[in-house]
Amino acid sequence: MNELRDSADVGELIQYIVIKIDDEQYGINIKFIDNIVRMQQITRVPQVDEYLKGVINIRGEIVPVMSVRMKMGLAEDVITNKSRIIILKTETGDLVGIIVDQVNQVLTIDSNNVEKVRYDDKKAKSNATFVSGVGHYDGGLVSILDLEAVVSDKEAKEKASNAS
Amino acid sequence: MDVSQYLSVFLDEAKEHLQSLNDNIMILEQDPENEDCINEIFRSAHSMKGMAGTMGYTRMQNLTHDMEDVFSDVRGGKIKIKSADIDVLLQCLDAIQGYVDNITENQDEGTDEHKDIIKALADIRNGGGGGEAASAAPAESAPAAEATPADGPAEGADGSSDYRAIRLDPSVKSTLEEAKSQGKKIYGVTVHIQESCILKAARGFLVFKGLEEIGEIAVSEPNTQDIEDEKFDFSFSLILITDESKEKVEEIVKSVSEVEGCECGEYDPSGAKAPEEKAEAAPQGAPAAAPAATTPAAPAANKPAPAAGGKKPVGKPVVNRTVRVDIEKLDVLMNLVSELIIAKNSLISAANTSGVSNSNVNEQIEYLESVTTNLHESVMKVRMVPIESVLQKFPRMIRDLNKTLGKKMELTMTGEDTEMDRTVVDEIGDPLMHLIRNSADHGIESADLRAQRGKPEVGQIFLHAFQDGNSVVIEVGDDGNGIDAEAVKNKAIEKGVVSPDQAALLTEKQCVELLFHPGFSTAKQVSEISGRGVGLDVVKSKVESLSGEVTVKTKLGEGSTWVIRLPLTLAIIQALMVIIGEEKYAIPLDSIQSIEDVSPSDIKFVENKEVINLRGSVLPLIRLNEVLDTESTKNPDEDMVVVIARKGDQLAGLVIDELMGQQEIVIKPLGKYTNKCKLISGATILGDGEIALILDTNSIF
User: Fold this and answer.
1) Inter-chain residue contact B674 with A155, CB threshold 8 Å
2) Is A44 close to B583, i.e. CB distance below 8 A?
3) What residues contact B619, with CB distance under 8 A and at least 6 apart?
């Protein structure tokens, strides 16, 4: 999942889609976004982790959808007509959808203005686990979502490490 | 010369030749006199040598060359193949296989020269030279036998051609005589093309073109069509009617690049013999080059009838009308067909919901439906390959196991022509190998024990493949020891797979099925053949990953049979659409026995579990809404719809809420994260774009 980590060169201009989850704003690097779709009927899959809401049909492909809120330990999603599913594309070409409360704007931030969150800080502050950095822009600050952490699958990881 | 573009063709063909060599050498071991077989081996070895040389793999070329020499002598009757020689030859094949593997991996044949094998091959030739002369004599007295009519026109006996050996049809002969009487010159020309030449046909064409500018080509051997199709080795002959001098003809031929040389001489048509006589007069190459159909009787009649050689006068089909297609292209095609079927389903549901009830529309939709179904079937057939390619290596494996295990075993296989989807065939080889090794190692008893039990000395291992409806069944079994359920149970307890209490409750059948448990191996000693504790559970998981199932039937002391059942295709299936709670699910039609209406009053309880009595057999009842954590929409007093599902010999009743009907569905993978649910084997997209999950009935009970 390292492909979802921001590895931009210093000084590069990066576009972020700014979304809202709960009361916080988060930025997602646009290069990981395949598509943004309106909320639609999600087909439930039995016997999977609770945060996996099910699967949807994106251009004939079956795409799993997960709730970032539940992953972050927040209250369950309240679906409004502002809710969107952001379809992320991993380097391996797999698609995965995340439910967000709202999509606000597109921001261009110089990578010099993005402060990386140090790994030690992450450990100490549990709710920062899903943030890889903080971006400064004219209007204020935006947390950059650590997509690897968001879509990571603990069990799968453990399995993989056991297998290898 | 850049030959990389030919690499994949080379590898494919090398593998085919290796397999053919393997098979034929095995036959030869049983029947050392089989001339068809010797010819076939010689031909394969010869082609391999040529190919390896062309590609610049000199070590491989040397090895195949030496092997070819051995068979050249065998064909010539100079030596006879002995059982010990077979071992050397098989080693030689392994070595060649090693080269091919190396080339596959890094386009380099490696540095191993296999001098020992080359020496052993030379020993065969020397050893056989003198001592065996007497026995070789009858073979030698049959010169025509070495070039049986079964040889296609393409593969002349020793690959060389000679204009003096060209046969003349009466009409050609009269043309030539007429030309001669008109004072024209008639030359016979034999052209030799360099063995490194890749586009032989093109060179041949250039020679023809050049010569046709100065005269008329009366006849060629092989004929023009075969030359254009590259169906000749490295030389061909022709007869030219011209006014030019011999030197001029030679100059034209030699001006074509990659032509090694040519022989040119005056040709006297009246001296040429009729086809039948020719066959006698030129035993070294001519009869082989004769098209099989025209003179099947002549060479055969010359033979003092050695048993095997003359039996098959029917030639092989000359042209193989096939195309090699990259499997990826077929995958793309299959995906497109899947898309088309989804689109068709959408069209049907759109027509239904928009209330179009025009009969013309329905007619066209039905037509579309039949076309897509046929298209799907055709594409599926294209992807189907005979399972043979996987089974081919097993006779050799059993032969080797005979030696390493010191047991006498024989493998019989039937249904090698059973066809399956390419992806399934590719995957099924390892599981089958495990099962056969398992039979050889654990199944077949030692010779003493077999004698005690009054069984024939040679243990039988069998493999039967056949199609059964929409699935393919492969049975692997032996007439050996059978499985001792008690031993399995004790072992399972010992290994901690089950607790003694649990074990006491198990039926014999369930005990045997413990064998499929991960990390289980009953072998008292870990042997090289099997018993590394990874065998049967790997077989099971592999087969299940192909949506198949594996079961075992066994009788202690009499043998056991493993039955693998696999779906014919993986991508598109017929399914029953059902509603459970508010959700739609698809159940593969293959696993459904019947659908029943059951009144709640018919439910009985056995060990606190719900069962029903269906025409005399008692089946467990599984409420799918409970399994899938959803609420049933049905009133508990109402009659239940029960889908009777089958898993091997077991049946179970699956309670659903509502039936939607049968539909052709395209299986899509569930993707990461969500594929952890064992109950669901995939998903499909319905006509309206909605997703329905596909239930894996095998994992429900």
Assistant:
1) no
2) yes
3) B611, B612, B644, B651, B652, B653
CA A133-A135-A141 angle, 5° bins: 115
ipTM entry: 0.80
Sorted by sequence, the CB contacts under 8 Å of residue B194 that are 6+ apart come out as B234, B258, B259, B260
Query: What's the pLDDT score for residue B641?
Result: 92
Are B670 and A61 a contacting pair at CB < 8 A? Answer: no
* Mean pLDDT for chain B overall: 76
**Residues above pLDDT 90, as percent of chain B:** 7
User: What radius of gyration do chain A's Cα atoms show?
Assistant: 16
User: Where is pLDDT greater, at B315 or B481?
Assistant: B481
Q: Looking at the predicted structure, is the pLDDT value of residue B251 above 90?
A: no
Cis-peptide, bond into residue B153, ω within 30° of zero = no
Parallel, antiparallel, or unpaired for β B409-414 and B459-468? parallel
Assign A120 a pLDDT band (cuts: 50, 70, 90): low
CB distance B475 to B429 below 8 Å: no
Residue in chain A closest to B342 (alpha carbons) equals: A60
- Write down the pTM of the prediction: 0.50
Is B68 a residue of the active site?
yes
Window 654-673 of B: residues touching A by CB (8 A cutoff) are: 668-673
Distance separating alpha carbons of residues B238 and A15, to the nearest angstrom: 74
Q: What is the pLDDT of residues B372-381, one digit of tens each?
A: 888 888 887 8
Q: Which alpha helices (DSSP H) does B141-259 contain, by range?
A: 170-181, 200-214, 224-228, 246-255
Closest CA to B76 of B147, B21, B153: B147
B538 interfaces chain A, CB cutoff of 8 Å: no
Rank A124-138, B78-92, B382-396, B531-545 by mean pLDDT and report only the highest: B382-396
Chain A's closest residue to B625, CA to CA, is: A46
What number of helices (H) and strands (E) belong to chain A? 4, 11
Known active-site residue B46: yes
State the Cα–Cα distance between residues B67 and B219, nearest whole angstrom: 35
Taking only the tens place, the pLDDT of each residue in B423-460 is 788 888 888 888 888 888 888 888 888 888 888 888 88
Q: Count of H helices and E strands in chain B? A: 25, 22
- Please identify which of the residues B68, B109, B155, B513 carries the catalytic annotation: B68
Chain A residues contacting B via beta carbons under 8 Å: 41, 43-49, 52, 54-57, 60-64, 66, 94-96, 153, 155-156
Tell me if residue B170 falls in helix, strand or coil. Answer: helix
* DSSP state for residue B17 in the 8-state scheme: H
Q: Which two tokens stand for residue B284?
A: 């070294």
